From TrEMBL:
Similarity remark: Belongs to the YjdM family.
Name of the featured protein: Alkylphosphonate utilization protein
Coiled coil, from the record: none
A Pfam family: YjdM
Domain Protein YjdM C-terminal residue range list: 46-113
Gene3D superfamilies assigned to the protein according to its UniProt record, in alphabetical order: 2.20.25.10, SH3 Domains
């Protein structure tokens, strides 16, 4: 059959080559061909302000007043954020805050509950 690797996220054998990366049609995960050759994984460890490892679905508390860019709103200290999602980029946490809406937060401004 094919000599392409199985998807590292869901294990699907139906991966395909799309330019410089592999793509899984079942879970839509994409990873670099170079990463597979070097044995690298994209398991990035994201930690909160206290050094605790964060995972998808965790509940965190904001430890500093955060101004919402482009608005007069402020996320106050002690605000609980439930069901976070970890993402790549400068702002590691994608979440929804009551009264404010969808936001991206930096992990250095939260602590795990």
């Amino acid at each position: 059959m094919s000599n392409l690797p199985n998807c590292p996220k869901c294990g699907s054998e139906y991966t395909y080559n799309d330019g410089s990366q592999y793509v899984c049609p079942e879970c839509a995960h994409e990873w670099a061909i170079d990463a597979q050759a070097d044995g690298e994984t994209d398991d990035r460890v994201i930690k909160d302000a206290n050094g605790n490892v964060l995972q998808d679905g965790d509940t965190v508390t904001v430890i500093k007043d955060l101004k919402v860019k482009g608005s007069s709103l402020v996320v106050k200290v002690g605000t609980k954020v439930k069901g976070i999602r970890l993402v790549d980029g400068d702002h590691d946490i994608d979440c929804k805050i009551d009264g404010i809406g969808a936001m991206k937060l930096k992990s250095e401004f939260v602590k795990k509950v």
